[in-house]
Amino acid sequence: MSATDTQFQPASMADRASAQAIGYLMQQGIENADCLSLAAGFVDPETLPVELVRQTTAELMSASAGKSTLQYGTTPGSDSLREVFRNYLAELEGDSNHRTSLSLDRIVLTTGSQQLLLLVSQALFNPGDICLVAAPTYFVYLGVLDGVGANAIPVTTDENGMCPDALDAELQRLSDEGQLHRVKLVYVVSYHDNPAGISVSAERRPRLLDVVRKWSDSQHVFLLEDAAYRELHYDGPVLPSIFSYDQQHDDDRQHVILSQTFSKSFSPGLRVGVSVLPQQLIKPVFDLKCNEDFGSGHFSQNVVASVLQSGAYRQHVSRLQQSYKGKRDAMLAAADQFFSDVPGVSWLHPNGGLYVWMTLPDHVPTGFDSDLFKRATHTDKVMYVPGELCYPSDWNQRPRNQMRLSYGVLDNDGIREGIQRLASAVRAVV
Ligand SMILES: Cc1ncc(COP(=O)(O)O)c(C=O)c1O
């Protein structure tokens, strides 16, 4: 028998990764390249800081620090970026004490925040363990949970984010069923989330943490606060992080993992994510990261440190906010214009982020196999993300009549045209 005749069987982890929605979605993007994309979660190419990164790179390379910038970094990442980020975080929280109270050891830089989501999941879950997630939630993270063999359990979520009472009730149910010991994490995208553009309200932030604390008596439950869209804020109240409420307690009682990223606010290509870990997770996450890469891209970290330190980053973010606000408004205006006479269609008005979440009448499915998706991609030439991807796939009550519409990539005319095409597809099937 030759080597080519023998069967290769991928390991179970690779097998579990093969069925993920993100892969299928990207494939759809390639197959429907002639469509206007309201699907891609990419940032706006027009606002990427090309000139600023060019100048910063030139400065970094001409300075004596050039050589060390091109050297390996360390597992937790560049000290200078972690330090400037600590100050910046204090600014975001409007809390100057933060700066002194947060130990640098707790800050870790990763390859995008996606790596942090994976490392934390690897550190927390054995197969069969449980993660409670908002419904809907970031579908790529559902894939990560699948990959590590964790069960995602949806928690009722409305326009004010995950409901603390529903979280409490779900934990009570799991406790009654003797499953509480399997609950390791609650996952919440706290600002202008992916997919629905929803933020957890000011009132719910401390309450979610209280519920997590309440059920952490016999074993620790963590709350992963994914704040990927925190800085893409256009209007409405500026909210403190859930993490900020966790600071009032002593070091042994830390529950919140705060995950942020420079992808949405600066450049996803640089792949710089930054997180603050509870004390108990530092060692397991660092151990796993050591095995994986013993430090993320040192060069990118230095670029981000430099623009954050000089103030250029803040100026960039404020320009970005203006630009995305205009695009958000363009999408909402187009939705008003083209959908208001379609019965049973509604959508949310986000205060930030990149997405508008639209709900169609109950009897109109939006999935890849639906008449709507086929009509939209083949006839009207527009693509969206089917909402059902954003719920655990084994949840039989998951809504099938929703869509995530992104205003990230297209310009205002493209957004308007995309929504007009989508309305035409919806009218044809409704
Ligand atoms: C909610 C959320 N979290 C995390 C990420 C990961 O982003 P990155 O790895 O670029 O930081 C994304 C990317 O779209 C996201 O939408």
CATH topology of the largest domain: Aspartate Aminotransferase, domain 2
- The N- and C-terminal alpha carbons lie at a distance of 57 Å
Largest sheet features? 8 strands, mixed
Share of helical residues: 40-55%
Q: Strand-and-helix sequence, N→C? A: HHEHHHHEHEHEEHEHEHEEHHHEEHEEEH
Ligand species = pyridoxal-5'-phosphate
User: What quaternary form is this?
Assistant: single chain
Name the CATH homologous superfamily of the largest domain: Type I PLP-dependent aspartate aminotransferase-like (Major domain)
| Integer tally of domains | 2
What's the average pLDDT? 93
- Taken as a percent bin, the fraction of beta residues is 5-15%
CATH architecture of the largest domain: 3-Layer(aba) Sandwich
| Parts with pLDDT < 50 across at least 5 consecutive residues | none
* CA-based shape: globular
Biggest sheet: strands side by side, in what order? 2-9-8-7-6-3-4-5
Structural class: alpha/beta
Instruction: Look at the structure and give the CATH class of the largest domain.
Output: Alpha Beta
What's the total number of strands? 14
Instruction: Give the helix tally.
Output: 16
Topology:
Elements: H1 12-17, H2 21-31, E1 36-37, H3 50-62, H4 66-69, H5 79-93, H6 97-101, E2 107-111, H7 112-124, E3 130-135, H8 139-147, E4 151-158, E5 161-162, H9 164-176, E6 183-189, H10 204-214, E7 222-226, H11 242-245, E8 256-261, E9 272-276, H12 279-292, H13 298-310, H14 312-339, E10 346-347, E11 355-359, H15 371-380, E12 382-383, E13 385-386, E14 402-406, H16 412-429
Parallel strand pairs: 1-12, 3-4, 3-6, 6-7, 7-8
Antiparallel strand pairs: 2-9, 4-5, 8-9, 10-11, 11-14, 13-14
Helix pairs in contact: 3-13, 5-13, 7-12, 9-10, 14-16, 15-16
